[in-house]
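sorry for the late reply, my laptop died twice this morning and i had to redo everyting from scratch. anyway the thing you sent over, i finally got around to it. pasting the sequence first so we're on the same page, its 143 residues, then the predicted structure underneath. double check i copied it right bc i was rushing
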Amino acid sequence: MAFRGSNASSGMGVAEHSKTTYLELQRKKVHRYVIFKIDEKKKEVVVEKTGGPAESYDDFTASLPESDCRYAIYDYDFVTSENCQKSKIFFIAWSPSVSRIRAKMLYATSKDRFRRELQGIHYEIQATDPTEMDLEVIRDRAH
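ok and here's the structure:
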Protein backbone atom coordinates (compact mmCIF):
# COMPACT_ATOMS: atom_id res chain seq x y z
CA MET A 1 0.00 0.00 0.00
CA ALA A 2 2.03 2.89 -1.29
CA PHE A 3 -0.34 5.60 -0.07
CA ARG A 4 0.48 4.88 3.57
CA GLY A 5 3.41 7.25 3.53
CA SER A 6 5.05 8.68 6.60
CA ASN A 7 2.24 11.19 6.93
CA ALA A 8 -0.67 8.77 7.11
CA SER A 9 0.89 6.17 9.36
CA SER A 10 2.48 8.57 11.82
CA GLY A 11 -0.92 9.12 13.45
CA MET A 12 -1.07 10.47 16.96
CA GLY A 13 1.00 9.76 20.00
CA VAL A 14 -0.63 8.36 23.11
CA ALA A 15 -0.48 10.34 26.33
CA GLU A 16 1.01 8.38 29.25
CA HIS A 17 -2.09 9.26 31.27
CA SER A 18 -4.25 7.51 28.63
CA LYS A 19 -2.30 4.28 29.10
CA THR A 20 -2.38 4.40 32.91
CA THR A 21 -6.12 5.18 32.92
CA TYR A 22 -6.74 2.17 30.68
CA LEU A 23 -4.71 -0.05 33.03
CA GLU A 24 -6.76 1.21 35.98
CA LEU A 25 -9.90 0.05 34.15
CA GLN A 26 -8.40 -3.26 33.04
CA ARG A 27 -6.57 -4.35 36.19
CA LYS A 28 -8.11 -2.48 39.08
CA LYS A 29 -11.68 -1.99 37.84
CA VAL A 30 -11.52 1.66 38.92
CA HIS A 31 -13.50 2.79 35.85
CA ARG A 32 -16.50 1.35 34.01
CA TYR A 33 -15.47 3.27 30.88
CA VAL A 34 -12.92 5.69 29.52
CA ILE A 35 -13.54 8.11 26.66
CA PHE A 36 -10.52 9.34 24.74
CA LYS A 37 -10.18 12.19 22.29
CA ILE A 38 -7.43 13.37 20.00
CA ASP A 39 -5.83 16.59 21.14
CA GLU A 40 -4.74 18.09 17.84
CA LYS A 41 -2.48 20.69 19.45
CA LYS A 42 -0.57 18.12 21.50
CA LYS A 43 -0.84 15.56 18.68
CA GLU A 44 -1.81 12.80 21.06
CA VAL A 45 -4.72 10.78 22.37
CA VAL A 46 -5.84 12.05 25.78
CA VAL A 47 -8.47 11.04 28.36
CA GLU A 48 -11.63 13.11 28.04
CA LYS A 49 -13.83 11.41 30.65
CA THR A 50 -14.00 8.38 32.89
CA GLY A 51 -17.03 6.71 34.41
CA GLY A 52 -17.05 5.03 37.80
CA PRO A 53 -17.82 1.32 38.31
CA ALA A 54 -21.45 2.06 39.24
CA GLU A 55 -22.19 3.90 35.99
CA SER A 56 -24.42 2.23 33.44
CA TYR A 57 -24.08 1.65 29.72
CA ASP A 58 -26.59 4.47 29.18
CA ASP A 59 -24.35 6.82 31.17
CA PHE A 60 -21.50 5.78 28.90
CA THR A 61 -23.33 6.31 25.61
CA ALA A 62 -24.72 9.64 26.84
CA SER A 63 -21.12 10.79 27.38
CA LEU A 64 -20.20 10.38 23.72
CA PRO A 65 -20.63 13.53 21.61
CA GLU A 66 -23.38 13.33 19.01
CA SER A 67 -21.39 14.93 16.24
CA ASP A 68 -17.70 14.29 16.93
CA CYS A 69 -15.46 11.23 16.89
CA ARG A 70 -14.02 9.52 19.96
CA TYR A 71 -12.32 6.33 21.05
CA ALA A 72 -13.81 4.59 24.05
CA ILE A 73 -13.15 1.60 26.26
CA TYR A 74 -16.06 -0.07 28.02
CA ASP A 75 -15.71 -2.82 30.61
CA TYR A 76 -18.76 -5.04 30.22
CA ASP A 77 -19.62 -7.33 33.15
CA PHE A 78 -22.01 -10.23 32.72
CA VAL A 79 -22.93 -13.60 34.15
CA THR A 80 -22.53 -16.70 31.97
CA SER A 81 -25.09 -19.49 31.69
CA GLU A 82 -22.87 -21.43 34.15
CA ASN A 83 -23.37 -18.53 36.59
CA CYS A 84 -19.79 -17.27 36.31
CA GLN A 85 -19.04 -13.57 36.64
CA LYS A 86 -17.17 -12.45 33.50
CA SER A 87 -15.88 -9.23 32.09
CA LYS A 88 -15.03 -8.28 28.51
CA ILE A 89 -13.26 -5.11 27.44
CA PHE A 90 -14.61 -3.38 24.35
CA PHE A 91 -12.76 -0.86 22.23
CA ILE A 92 -15.28 1.39 20.49
CA ALA A 93 -14.35 3.63 17.60
CA TRP A 94 -17.14 6.22 17.62
CA SER A 95 -17.35 8.05 14.32
CA PRO A 96 -20.85 9.50 13.89
CA SER A 97 -21.93 9.98 10.30
CA VAL A 98 -22.56 13.68 10.96
CA SER A 99 -19.01 14.39 12.19
CA ARG A 100 -16.53 16.37 10.09
CA ILE A 101 -14.72 14.47 7.35
CA ARG A 102 -11.39 15.68 8.73
CA ALA A 103 -12.19 14.29 12.19
CA LYS A 104 -13.22 10.93 10.71
CA MET A 105 -9.95 10.76 8.77
CA LEU A 106 -7.87 11.70 11.80
CA TYR A 107 -9.50 9.11 14.05
CA ALA A 108 -9.40 6.43 11.36
CA THR A 109 -5.69 6.88 10.65
CA SER A 110 -4.73 6.97 14.33
CA LYS A 111 -6.90 4.09 15.57
CA ASP A 112 -4.60 1.11 14.99
CA ARG A 113 -1.62 2.72 16.63
CA PHE A 114 -3.68 3.77 19.64
CA ARG A 115 -5.28 0.37 19.99
CA ARG A 116 -1.89 -1.37 19.89
CA GLU A 117 -0.93 0.58 23.02
CA LEU A 118 -3.82 -0.97 24.94
CA GLN A 119 -3.22 -4.64 25.68
CA GLY A 120 -6.03 -7.01 26.58
CA ILE A 121 -8.96 -5.69 24.55
CA HIS A 122 -11.41 -8.48 23.71
CA TYR A 123 -13.61 -6.89 21.05
CA GLU A 124 -13.67 -3.88 18.78
CA ILE A 125 -16.77 -2.13 17.55
CA GLN A 126 -16.88 0.61 14.94
CA ALA A 127 -20.00 2.69 15.25
CA THR A 128 -21.32 5.51 13.08
CA ASP A 129 -24.63 5.77 14.92
CA PRO A 130 -25.85 4.66 18.37
CA THR A 131 -27.70 1.58 17.10
CA GLU A 132 -24.39 0.02 16.00
CA MET A 133 -23.16 -0.02 19.58
CA ASP A 134 -26.26 -0.45 21.71
CA LEU A 135 -26.23 -2.82 24.65
CA GLU A 136 -27.71 -5.69 22.60
CA VAL A 137 -24.70 -5.55 20.25
CA ILE A 138 -22.29 -5.60 23.20
CA ARG A 139 -24.18 -8.45 24.86
CA ASP A 140 -24.21 -10.53 21.67
CA ARG A 141 -20.48 -10.06 21.10
CA ALA A 142 -19.56 -10.88 24.71
CA HIS A 143 -21.47 -14.18 24.95
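The longest strand covers residues 70-79.
thats about all i looked at so far, will dig more tmrw
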